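Reopening this one. Same input as before:
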Amino acid sequence: MSDLIGEDQLYYRKGLGLKGEVADELSTAYHSDLVDRVVEAGFELRERDLTIRLAREFGNCYGVDRAVQYAYEARRRFPERRIFLTGELIHNPHVNREMLAMGIGFLTGRYAEDVSFDELRPEDVVLLPAFGAPTAVMRRLKETGCVLVDTTCGSVLLVWKTVERFSREGFTAIIHGKYYHEETRATASRAMESPGGAYLVVRDLDETALVTDFIRHGGDAAALAERFRQATSPGFDFTRHLTRVGVANQTTMLMRETEAVAEEFRRAMVERYGPDHLDEHVRTLDTICSATQERQDAVEELLRDPPHLMIVLGGYNTNNLARICERVCPTFHIDDPKCVEGPDRIRHKPLGAEDEVETRGWLPEGPVEIGLTSGASTPNNKTGQTIERLLACRGIAVPA
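Same output, byte for byte:
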């Protein structure tokens, strides 16, 4: 990262020293006493015929809390300056709207207004989001010389270092993720920092199979190039760049799927080159975020005794918790507590759907158990508001 930052550029990577000064603001904006009480009661709330079971790991991870804290510190440290985010701070509409309310603008994405990178000035403050930023963006900011506040998650930095090492040692980076995701774009850019570096992004096991079949047997490279044209580095050569690969991932992917992707590449290389040469042709390292894994493990533990239904709270572009839950029981993925509109109506996004849908009659009559979890970019106050709305569906007041 150091070579992407100007020597005289003011750069904050470990906060701005104002954690204590913004603590009360953060607590007021994002804390939930109700959630605290549910946790203290064994992650379960029973009121009349309604039981709400909360996963034992849920909500904001350390990296998200840190990113939000740094944004508040930046606003406090530079009250008179223009402050911008390169993109969404985290994938949570509530938090990003809070940034706008604090006078923090967005340079790209759906929250962007009328200021672009070209209009930045050296005195402006720019926050790098928890997902990080591509190297091209970093170089652009270096040229501008503006103040940088880096909130990039440590788990993401670990993946970058892994991909950079793959590239230096002549291995193509195979990234298990979504090619359009901010984190994956930033990670892929690190694969290009060494001469001859290359990357390919695979979304799932189906896409993995297309690639590993080519490794085993060859085939129509032009067709693959068209299939992955948005998910490969410029000039990617399926014949040349798949002889030596290193597997990494977008940190929010399902651990078991990433492991399966890596195993498929290992098998393909064994079949192509023989087991004695495996280490020469494939490398795999565990780069799953610990917070992501903890939330996935916690929801699987909850599902060992399945509730009647699951509510998954979190941005619609982060749906892996919903994928786990849907295998076991009816699941409703919502991005805001207001999606729980009443006992007969809920707005949610089914897996694979493009848009949010409305389902009626979602809450069964009689005694019911609802499992609840929230993604790593979801503040506790939103989890608390969801519990309140579930209680209201049964006409139950929030317990004191």
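So the earlier flakiness isn't reproducible anymore. For the record, The chain has three domains: 26-60+291-392, 62-153, 155-288.
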